[in-house]
Amino acid sequence: MTSSSALVSLSLLAALVISSANGACTRFFTAEDAQSVNVPSNLDPELIPPQGNVPIAQLFGLGAQHYTANGTAWVLTSATAELFNSRFENIGVHFYLPHADPKGGQPSWKTPCPRSLVTAKRVFTAPVQNNNIPWVLLEATNSQGSCGLFGDVTYVQRLFTKNGLPTSTAPTDINATFSSSYTSFYVFYKQM
Ligand SMILES: *[C@@H]1O[C@H](CO)[C@@H](O)[C@H](O)[C@H]1NC(C)=O
Ligand SMILES: *[C@@H]1O[C@H](CO)[C@@H](O)[C@H](O)[C@H]1NC(C)=O
Q1: Residue 45 domain-assigned?
Q2: What's the pTM value of the predicted model, to 2 decimals?
Q3: Of 5, 34, 84, 191, which is least surrounded by CB within 10 A?
């Protein structure tokens, strides 16, 4: 075998490995999903990422916000949710890192296939309305997996929230926990 044919077989092998890795992804995010992004045009300007960032995906989140009592109030400690595309296929999860990353990011979203992850920190929180968790803008502090949906994500919006606030009853025990189910849409942005 000459060295140039060896090179060709190597790149063929790489192509096969990549295609079979993607082939295992049966619930891929599609162009159809990208077209379903629907950000209201009258959104509070502080919820809108800087110019140059464009929405690439909108996912439906279904899960719970988790609170811990600090003695006088319920304090948000994390959230867990399943993420669905426009065909209601489960394509990823929302979770919190155990500790904030060096840039202050903790809420995270990841897809298993192709693998991708974005972690972000809140930069704006809109006022709470109608007993739903607030709409927020988060700026990415870390993203991984350029082949996956969340690689290179720069901003995340949480919009159209439903429920998820802690109980209005003040906690009696320090470290008591309370989980509150919620739904929302998450819109993911990349720099173009
Ligand atoms: C508990 O959290 C509330 C709301 O964040 C805060 O105002 C209060 O100071 C906290 N109390 C303690 C004991 O840390
Ligand atoms: C509450 O949890 C913290 C952190 O785990 C712990 O240090 C503290 O002792 C706990 N307090 C009570 C009253 O259980």
Answers
A1: no
A2: 0.84
A3: 5
